[in-house]
Amino acid sequence: MDYSWLGQNWMELARLIGSSILALGVWLAFLNLRNSRIAAQISAKQSELSTRQQEVAILSQVQDRWNSIYETRNKLRTTKFHLVNWAGMEPEEILKHKDWIEIVRPVANFYEFVGLIISKGYIAPETALVLVTADRASRMNASPLIDALRSKYRDDLYLFWDELIEIGERVEALTPRQLPKVGG
Predict the structure, then answer these.
(1) To pair with 153 at 20 to 30 A between CA atoms, which of 14, 46, 85, 164?
(2) b/e per residue, 48-86, with b = 16+ CB within 10 A?
(3) In this structure, are residues 139 and 111 in contact, taking their beta carbons and an 8 Å threshold?
(4) Cα(51)–Cα(58) distance, rounded to whole angstroms?
(5) Residues near 156 by Cβ (< 8 Å), separated by ≥ 6?
(6) Which one has a higher pLDDT value, 102 or 179?
(7) Lowest-confidence range among 9-13, 24-28, 60-64?
(8) Is the confidence at residue 150, as pLDDT, over 70?
(9) pTM
(10) Given a cut of 70, is residue 85 above it in pLDDT?
(11) Which of 64, 168, 67, 177 has the alpha carbon at shortest distance from 124?
């Protein structure tokens, strides 16, 4: 091979190679930046999808639990708990009582669960209230038992249920027109 031309033009060749390397570096940096942006967009979409999947799973669980306690909740609304002297009972008696086990506790635990997941930000109150009625009547009817347990057993019992009722009174459930479109 003849390299005689290299001796005469080595400075020009060095500049050409340097310019080529610089151009290649700029091009690679551009590709890297572009790929980083694409990766960030993909990551954001994956995160959004994960959040939506989590919300769907939670809403599905809320709906299933709501369906399972619905009749019991209706019983809670009509049972005359105020006719029993719950305040005169010891917590152990209340916790073993048929009305507590079969009526109040399942409903109270459901509402406590919904209030908790809203308070923790797992689902928006407007969304949860599409599926669940957070009515004060159920809570008021259960008050004799819950108040008796709060005074003698645990003062923090079913506070998220109380919070859910307050949220339900100030926040309106979403209507179908207000729900965000999937993918948009």
Answers:
(1) 164
(2) eeeeeeeeeebbeebeebbeebeebbebbeebebeebeb
(3) yes
(4) 11
(5) 150
(6) 102
(7) 9-13
(8) yes
(9) 0.69
(10) yes
(11) 168
Closest CA to 104 of 88, 131, 132, 81: 81
Phi and psi based region of residue 176 (left: phi greater than 0; alpha: psi -120 to 50; beta: remaining): alpha
Nearest 5°: the CA angle 52, 54, 55 is 65
Which of the four pLDDT bands, split at 50, 70 and 90, describes residue 157? very high
Q: How far apart are CA 25 and CA 20, in angstroms?
A: 8
Residue 176 has pLDDT above 80, yes or no: no
Cα–Cα distance for residue pair 22/147, rounded to 1 Å = 76
Residue 117 token pair: 């997941």
What single letter denotes the amino acid at residue 140? Answer: M
Tokens, residue 1: 């091979």
Q: Which of 66, 77, 97, 93 is nearest to 143 (CA)?
A: 77
Give the pLDDT mean for 100-118. Answer: 94
Q: Is residue 149 packed enough to be buried (19+ CB in 10 Å), middle (13-18) or exposed (0-12)?
A: buried
